[in-house]
Amino acid sequence: MKFRQKVHEVFNLKPDILVVPESENIERLGLTKKDYPELSDSKWIGDNQSKGLSIFTFNDFKIDLFENYSNNYKYILPVTVSRKNKSYRVIGVWTKKIEEKKKGHNNYIRQVYLSLIEYESFLNFENIIVCGDFNSNLFWKRSGIDNNHQMVLDQLDDKNIHSSYHQFFNEEQGKENIPTYYHYHHQDKPFHIDFCFLSNKLIKKLKKVHIGEFEDWMHLSDHVPMTIELSDQ
Question: In the CATH hierarchy, which top-level class contains the domain 3-230?
Answer without folding.
Answer: alpha beta
